[in-house]
Specification:
Number of strands: 0
Largest sheet: none
Distance between the termini: 24 Å
Length: 141
């Protein structure tokens, strides 16, 4: 992506389409994170690639629409047990699934595993762990 003009066009165009909400959210986050990375001193093609994979695949193991919106313990505890287990384990399972892709960036599976701020990839903590990847310091949700 070259610039902000293109990013704004993509976001505007995508927001008018009737598509799966979870996919749209991942796509929006991918666009925003690419723009964010472009303006950081630490940005590189590898870091941008990691953020793209993270944006698109962090919830890949959640097949039921809406479960990706569960990001607090309160919301988690309101779910039926089988859905709660899916949500609690999805970061670990998504990382495991992505680990089977060819030529993924180094460290990507751990970053996906930590995307809710939990080092082991299971559960949704009340507070973020200081031991998670720096990518997750601004990505955790």
């Amino acid at each position: 992506m070259r610039g902000e003009k293109e990013a704004k066009y993509l976001i505007n165009h995508l927001s008018k389409k009737e598509i799966n909400e979870d996919f749209a959210q991942s796509y929006f986050v991918a666009i925003i994170m690419q723009q964010f990375a472009t303006h950081q001193e630490w940005q590189s093609e590898t870091s941008k690639e990691v953020m793209l994979y993270l944006s698109l695949f962090h919830d890949i193991s959640l097949f039921d629409q809406g479960l990706a919106k569960i990001n607090t313990k309160t919301k988690l505890e309101a779910l039926e047990l089988h859905d709660r287990i899916k949500v609690e384990n999805h970061a670990f399972e998504s990382a495991d699934l992505v680990s089977k892709f060819n030529n993924i960036p180094f460290g990507l599976t751990q970053i996906i595993r930590e995307h809710h701020g939990e080092k082991e990839g299971v559960g949704i903590p009340e507070t973020l762990s200081i031991n998670v990847s720096h990518f997750n310091n601004f990505y955790c949700r």
